[in-house]
Amino acid sequence: NFINVKGDVNLSVDGNFETLVEGNYNIRAKNLNIEVEEDMDTVVLRNTTERYEKIFKTTALGAVSQRYNDTFDGVYKGNTTLTYGDKLDSSIKGAVTERYADTVDRRIDGIQTEIYKSTVNLTSTEGSININSGITFNVNAVTLDLDGTTVDIDGTTTNINAATLAVNAPSSNILGTAG
Questions:
Q1: Is 70 exceeded by the pLDDT of residue 176?
Q2: Which of 21, 125, 139, 166 could, after both became Cys, cross-link 25 (CB 3.0–4.6 A)?
Q3: What is the 3-state secondary structure (H, E, C) of the chain?
Q4: pLDDT digit string (tens) for 82-120?
Q5: Residues 131 and 137: beta-carbon distance below 8 Å
Q6: pLDDT digits (tens, 9 = 90+) for 128-141
């Protein structure tokens, strides 16, 4: 059976309205607007697929909460910009793997603090690791071990303060005074 109406139709229900469809329910419209004055709940008992052929925009004027109880895969093709407001808290309980196929430029205008409860390894298999500081570079450690074919320490003034200084080299040009 078909109902064909030419012209506008306004349906007003002064109470609850429920529609039960035993088969498929398809809505086709040139434009579709849904306005809800209070809460809206959507329950889908199986899979959900959404496809947008043009721009997809979501605006939330209040707090947003998203929860995924299983795997979450996000794929962005093309340029991607993620912008966060005043503060970003990120908490990950398992291992983290990040892979970048090209240069990573990171700018931090404030102080960066990283706290590790285990060993930190910086490895460059094909290039150098450069640390540049415009003011001061401090290394504080119980043991400092520098290994290299050539180790250069250049400075207008170089101070080594130690109770004992051991140099193990076939030759040396270190001059000093015994206390």
A1: no
A2: 21
A3: CCCCCCCCCCCCCCCCCCCCCCCCCCCCCCCCCCCCCCCCCCCCCCCCCCCCCCCCCCCCCCCCCCCCCCCCCCCCCCCCCCCCCCCCCCCCCCCCCCCCCCCCCCCCCCCCCCCCCCCCCCCCCCCCCCCCCCCCCCCCCCCCCCCCCCCCCCCCCCCCCCCCCCCCCCCCCCCCCCC
A4: 888 888 888 888 899 998 888 989 888 889 898 888 888
A5: yes
A6: 888 888 888 888 88
